[in-house]
């Protein structure tokens, strides 16, 4: 299962239901991890977004789809740049969020 680090601000917004997407730059590192999920339409995968690098850091396990496109500025994307857009369909579990 893919585990991606996420900043606290975005983590909290996702937990609270305010943010429905997370963005990753289109670079070789993410091409290997996310690129295959953009092939075809609507592949659903489970991803863990972790606020920190420790196994015990707060995390969100969620069902997602991945596509390429422009993100929303209010959710951290720069204008006129394409990203891997991780669209959160459903939050399955939130762990260690205090």
Could you give a short description of this structure?
This protein has 98 residues and is α+β, with helices and mostly antiparallel strands.
Describe the structure.
By secondary structure, this protein is α+β, with helices and mostly antiparallel strands. It has a single domain (2-95), classed as Archaeosine Trna-guanine Transglycosylase, Chain: A, domain 4 (Roll). The chain has 2 helices and 5 strands. Strands 1-3-4-5-2 form a 5-stranded mixed beta sheet. The mean pLDDT is 93.
List the helices and strands and how they pair.
Elements: E1 2-5, H1 8-15, E2 21-25, H2 28-34, E3 45-50, E4 59-70, E5 82-95
Parallel strand pairs: 1-3
Antiparallel strand pairs: 2-5, 3-4, 4-5
Shape: globular
Biggest beta sheet attributes:
5 strands, mixed
Under CATH at level 1, the class stands as Mainly Beta
Our count of helices gives 2
Instruction: Give the DSSP E fraction (strand runs of 2 or more residues).
Output: 35-45%
Average pLDDT metric: 93
User: Remind me, CATH topology?
Assistant: Archaeosine Trna-guanine Transglycosylase, Chain: A, domain 4
How would you spell out the order of helices and strands? EHEHEEE
Structural class: alpha+beta
Descriptive labels:
98 residues, alpha+beta, Archaeosine Trna-guanine Transglycosylase, Chain: A, domain 4, 5 strands, globular
